[in-house]
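Can you please make up a whole protein chain along with its backbone structure tokens because I've never seen that pairing?
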Amino acid sequence: MHYLQFDKEQLVNLEYSLFKEILRSNRAGSYLSTTLNGCNTRKYHGLLVCPIENFGGEKHVLLSSLDETVIQNEAEFNLGIHRYKGGTYEPNGHKYIRNVEFDSIPKITYRVGGVVLTKERLLVEKEEQILIKYTLEEAKSPTTLRLKPFLAFRNIHQLSKANMYVNRKFGKAKNGIKTCLYEGYPDLFMQCSKSVDFVAVPDWYYDIEYVKELNRGYDYLEDLFVPGYFEFPMKKGESIVFAAGLKEANPVSLKQRFTKEQKKRGGKETFNSVLEQAAHQFIMHEGYTADIIAGFPWYNSITRQTFISLPGLCLALNDGKLCEKILDSYLKYFNDGFFPDRIKDKTLEYHSADTSLWFIWVIQQYFKKKNNPKALWKLYGEAIKRILNAYVNQNQEYIKVLPNGLIHAEKKDTALTWMDASVDGKAVVPRSGMDVEVNALWFNAICFALDLADMAGDREFIDQWKHMCKKVAQSFLKTFWGEGRGYLADVVNDDQYDWAVRPNMVIAVAMDYTPLSREQQKEVLSVVKRKLLTNRGLRTLSPDHLRYFGVTRGRPEERELAVHQGAVWPWLLQFFVEGYLKIHKRGGLPFVKQIVESFEAEMTEHCIGNIPELFDGDPPHIGRGAISQAWNVAGVLYALNMVQNYSE
């Protein structure tokens, strides 16, 4: 029996299957995404979505969907499903779905009368190509399969509209065709593993409606171009493979290629294995460099999220070499001790008070695995020194170390921490001043660097920085600790204290080096547990606060107001778990184990086998935002890894 299970009786129910999504990605930066029943509900959905070099490497939807029609005794049964303007579904192929299995790849079973047809889809690991395998499991009379491709050829953030400029012509390819709808795009090759007939019937399908975009307040109607259809007979027990990609395939080897690619995928027998498979989808290799895609479907890499994700994605998966490769890739963009917000942006911006400190934290986690201080200091010692000096020397005019040793960060209308939501160009949660987690990371970075330098024998660095530990620790407690409150201020700016209960203070508890006493750590955890902890992570604001938003929905600006004012972020859970186990040891294990394992229920909701960007602060904590987020998967993996280590 497969780990990921679905109610077979409910698969034909649109309310059940339409809001469960499927995501697959590859190492070439491409992805496929749709719903459990195959009806696209987002403009970001598509069977082949890949970066296009001519358009700056931005992702474009090429093959939006592929409708299958089973023909038997001149009767046609269309297995496809689209939602049109006004909420009309046509055709209604979902009613033929009898089973969906998730092992190494998803497998959908359709039953039409005496015909049983299965469909399996995968992306080739390092190439912009999707392979779809159809197997005719049962058939009592001659059967023909028709495949009708719906093409978009547009940026993932845009929508296609019927126009006179579309190229209706197509060229021949082995067992298929090649087509290119617009100038600047590469040819899309659509081929089959057996000889097929292609019938050219070029036409537009108007007003396909994406309900997720409608609900999110964006444009939601699209026109898709269908060049014609492929048709071929199938015998009982026969399998054929349909391929769509940017290079012409050899049809003879398509079945073999499908089998070879399928064997590369691990199974999904446990909660752990499902998360590990999800973790792999964020890793993208580009020649000698590697990067982490922050989330699907609309994010590229985000530097802060990359660093926070690394321990969970690489170390929990026991892939230290990948960790080194990604860190080295980012060091190429290192400038005056700081990293850019996003390395893929055309113009690099340096608007982060904490990203460089997260870089040191990653090295710290890596050290726990590698435990070779001299080698690690040789690799990254110079970068660590440059980072620490950059803060003291004020290499960024809006980030500086005050005479008391704490970091102060402030820039007009700009958020410099991870709480970076903005509306009308202004930060929703500005957090200008001394931020609690930035200074917790600062203290941790200094102490770790001193210990690592000591083990590596760098006396000059130690003499330069040893006075800072005590100074920062004393200032941290004097500035942030609320005597009588039992928790830490979130931000302090001059004499203004923000005592809103937010999750950032839990990072101070989780760090290996913290200025907090054991009793203070316990008090902070108690407040976080009581006011912020849910079974999906930590709320960004306590529900008793006047500015608390319990639900993240509505138009874009409404959602931005809520994402850091009450929404739940799963990645923060790893720091709560680490802090809780540090204080309570094995005695705290049953409690945190229950919280972490509660994510198992999410594996068959929202996006199958993934964790979305955030959840509503109010129960039942519905998933929102991007359907799969790297630091959330990494955070839960990291927490699960800690729980298992304590259990052993």
About this structure: The longest helix spans residues 436-456.
